[in-house]
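hey can u run this one w/ thymidine-5'-diphosphate bound, need the structure tokens asap thx
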Amino acid sequence: MVGRGRFITFEGIDGAGKSSQIEAAVTHLRRLGHPVVHTREPGGTAIGERLRDLLLHQPMHLETEAMLMFAARREHLETLILPALARGEWVVSDRFTDATYAYQVGGRGLDRCRFEVLERWVHAGFQPDLTLLFDIEPAIAAERLAGAGSAPDRFEREQVDFFARVRKAYLERAGEAGGRIRVIDASAPVAVIRERVMAAVDLR
Ligand code: TYD
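ok here u go:
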């Protein structure tokens, strides 16, 4: 019988530089011999990617945004994450539910109690085995985003104070997560971050 795979998520404010580090982590895990599914939220499924397009570009009520995040997550869990883990594969996701607590509760200011209900509905006690939180000053992240040159989406257009609230919520959640969330200093040199990420994802 194959063992259950591991579920690793990457989090951080926009511009924290997690995307290239996720690529490196996935390559590293595959070199170690693990079958790895690399996915993202919102997204990861046909329905999830259509919801992502709406979420990132279509103005909407903040509660609609929150519920669509969880709708996409339900589909993602049911059709991709849980089946892959059951097959013994590892799943690496660019964001998961910690992002909802950071962006919709911290950033948008929505009531946390509602999210606890949605979280219980959508994934009950299921949580990532490990979450790497890329932590950085919002002002530095904003400079990186400005330098990226691509058109900003609905979230990337938010101001520094929004990202300061998102960051604070992420760090508070890390404090409550009992070791599941590891904070990575995303202002360190890229090679140093890469070493730390590779060491962290090497779960046995
Ligand atoms: P992101 O993961 O940063 O992708 P890219 O690097 O392609 O821009 O974009 C997803 C955005 O969605 C990001 O700004 C955070 C936001 N988001 C939430 O607000 N809540 C959530 O629950 C999730 C998963 C993402």
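Helices lie at 18-31, 46-57, 62-86, 97-107, 112-123, 138-148, 160-176, 190-201. anyway lmk if its weird
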